TrEMBL record, chains A, B:
PANTHER family: ALANINE AMINOTRANSFERASE (PTHR11751), ALANINE TRANSAMINASE (PTHR11751:SF29)
Quaternary structure annotation from Swiss-Prot or TrEMBL: Homodimer.
Protein name per UniProt: alanine transaminase
GO biological process: L-alanine catabolic process
Length: 471, 471
């Protein structure tokens, strides 16, 4: 048994989530609980908690799949035109054929145009790779950094807290993680002095090769300022690091402005505009929330020619990403334009999703900040809140007795008393002695309101009980 | 750079296929060639060469995706009923939500029932994993066998010739391959004495952990007899090998009967019915040919409980396979039944695809066996012919001069003169001093006829030229 596989774990689908599955079954069997349903806010799984699919996207998928719909009057003409263009770019005119391993050509062209429009700088189809989700895409590129003859012990810098799939993949590949902590007291921003210290320490035990940045942050919800991005680029240049820019939540931005790493790299000019970078984006989040379709894209930027060739060879062994996930990406990068029949409904649906998220982002943060012992940074982007909880000493002692981490104990109690499923902060990493949990802001406004009410009363009882606890 | 990645290659999408892409562009630019189109028989990519999608499957996908179709009179009621059942099993009622990492529950139940019906033995939903293609599924299980503390140097037996993704994955994972040759002179059957010799040799340099069997064979097209399967199971038991049964082409069987490894294991009784096995099946081949959707399933059988737990943890890090690929699997394992509105068209379409393949299987083999220097075993299953060619000495000398393998030289010449894209036998492995190539039998009958005519005249000229060649 491969040890790297054995020790790997993925907190988001860990014990709390498994216990929630059991409870759901117990409820179905009629067992008495202090609640009558499970509220899942552990996964960024938009449709699972009621987000409505974008009609235009679903019509495009259905038409590409069942081409009789090209003749149907119920499908708008702009959808049909797009479907025809995509099908022409599929070998044999069918989404049932393999695409090239980088993806359907015309969709990659649309992605390049979309990025050009976003950044105001050229993007090249040859640099676009369609993939089955960001995790999948990250894994394929990371493989290039695994230990080899020319580097016995590679390391990759990752933020703490961070999306646990990054840690899991590094563990699986036997690559050293070099943690850098986001500064909670300054809105989860980057502290460059700390990064410099961390890489210095790391050089004593490994060879740093790359850095992962998540912007907007998951689970932390911050948006990096342009200045922060510039600092990080300069740092990566000096330390010769490949930049993995997880920009998955670029459409989930509230009040602030998103800058892509590539845009900033280009605008910093020489030598930074020659640096290597990979940027990730997906159909799973944003306003579409199509997690199940497994559609994502990567833009690789300035990748070394020889490495790129090997990268493409590696992609070939996975044949291709699911074509319908690719079509979902097309819907995002080539949306209805003003004057087209799908435009009004599309804008209405998109605005509704993003507008609601903005309301919910504020609602959740405000609520949490009103609880004793809670401190939650404002949510500038992404779909999660990650509040800090100061746990009463009694709770710490109880957790120790039960031999589980205090944040896990808190989240377990929360689940058993209210049915709310969260992820303990230890799953993402947190500074020692601090405790957090992650919740999504995805459920509909009224469900979220109900959840916050349950949460508040649980928290009050928990605090009362464990403040009194005999310590 | 990871060396295992650097040396990995995937012949099917290798240099010949890349040259075909270039030629296609040259043709578009108006360059003169001895042919006016490329005929791709290198990839088992059914729809790419004109196979028509199964209407029932596409309607089911479209309805699950665009649920307004549940109200449409153009979708048959049995499709709608199935779509509703699937959607009920999706969290939030949407294919846009993540499924569990093993797949949508109701589809896994349908798979188990389907296997029960096929084999006449119990199958359990808990043992079914839906995955994004067989290669993907194989990789995840193989990870469990990577070098670890308890086994420094694992090895896996693989057939030669074999589907090159197996070799590529072993290389990538740094697992030793233990080749066993299929006996071409006896219809590519298994020679058990040879397998015993090979594992004996292998034990001097690695620790054999598993064996891969491809049945029906790719690229070789044989179907293992029940006796052959029994022998292999006994051998695997004695040598304590996990069996990977690639049974992807179980629906593509001509004249003979397919037996699953699991069925034979159970019917052999103790101790064989306790052996560990994983069987793979997919929506990409069979009569559906939906390669682009990335839908497949695995049945794991008797997997060690502790290992299974780690396996499921590993699956969690990939979130889930594409839900629409999962729906394609449902269409296969839960097809229209007699009396249902979709039944007649479904049977008609399915029969047509499988009937044509049977005709083409014979047509290709007969044609090849009529050429000088060709010897092609009958095609009992799968979608490929893999004839042996005795190349004239002049061709061998020419290839040597060009520093390429003789079979590659032959396939390159074939491409440049006729536009036919095949895969050289060296990509799959072949006994030293023998030369082969693989062609699919997928193009429509009339295209295949045209191809065989072109092939014959090329082969005649090639033989005449290189028999005369000054050696």
């Amino acid at each position: 048994m491969n040890q790297n596989v054995r020790i790997m774990d993925y907190a988001i689908r860990g014990t709390i989530s498994e216990r929630a599955d059991e409870i759901e079954k117990e409820l179905l069997k009629g067992e008495k609980k202090p609640f009558n349903k499970i509220i899942r806010v552990n996964l960024g799984d938009c449709h699972a908690v009621g987000q409505i699919p974008i009609t235009f996207l679903r019509q495009l998928l259905a038409t590409c799949t069942y081409t009789e719909l090209l003749k149907s009057s119920s499908i708008p003409s702009d959808v049909k035109e797009r479907a025809k263009i995509i099908l022409q770019s599929c070998t044999g005119g069918s989404v049932g054929s393999y695409s090239t391993s980088s993806g359907i050509d015309v969709i990659r062209q649309h992605v390049a145009k979309y990025i050009e429009k976003r950044d105001g700088h050229r993007a090249y189809t040859d640099n676009i790779i369609l993939c089955a989700g960001v995790a999948e895409g990250f894994k394929t590129i990371l493989k290039l950094f695994k230990a080899g003859v020319d580097c016995k012990n590679p390391g990759v810098m990752i933020p703490v807290p961070q999306f646990p799939l990054y840690t899991a993949t590094l563990t699986e590949y036997g690559i050293s993680r070099i943690p850098y902590f986001l500064k909670e007291s300054n809105f989860w921003s980057l502290d460059m002095d700390h990064l410099k210290d961390q890489i210095k320490i790391a050089r004593s035990y490994c060879f740093p090769r790359a850095i992962v940045v998540i912007n907007p942050g998951n689970p932390t919800g911050q948006l990096l300022t342009r200045e922060n991005i510039e600092d990080l680029i300069r740092f990566a240049y000096k330390e010769r690091l490949f930049i993995f820019a997880d920009e998955l939540y670029q459409d989930n931005v509230y009040d602030s402005k998103f800058f892509s790493f590539k845009k900033v790299m280009i605008e910093l000019g020489e030598p930074y505009n020659k640096m290597e970078c990979a940027s990730f984006m997906s159909a799973s989040k944003g306003y579409t929330g199509e997690c199940g379709l497994r559609g994502a894209y990567i833009e690789v930027f300035n990748m070394d020619t020889e490495v790129k060739e090997i990268y493409k060879k590696l992609l070939n062994t996975s044949l291709c990403s699911p074509t319908l996930g690719q079509v979902a990406i097309d819907a995002i990068v080539n949306p209805p334009q003003k004057g087209e029949p799908s435009y009004d409904l599309f804008i209405q649906e998109k605005t509704k999703v993003l507008g609601d998220l903005k309301i919910k982002a504020k609602m959740v943060v405000d609520a949490f900040n009103s609880y004793d012992g809670f401190k939650c940074n404002p949510l500038q982007g992404a779909l999660y809140a990650f509040p800090k909880i100061t746990l009463p000493p009694g709770a710490l002692k109880k957790a120790e007795k039960k031999k589980i981490l205090p944040d896990v104990y808190y989240c377990k109690k929360l689940l058993e008393k209210t049915g709310i499923v969260t992820v303990p902060g230890s799953g993402f990493g947190q500074e020692e002695g601090t405790y957090h949990f992650r919740t999504t802001i995805l459920p509909p406004v009224e469900v979220l309101q109900e959840m916050l009410k349950l949460f508040q009363s649980f928290h009050k009882q928990f605090f009362e009980r464990y403040s009194k606890y005999d310590i």
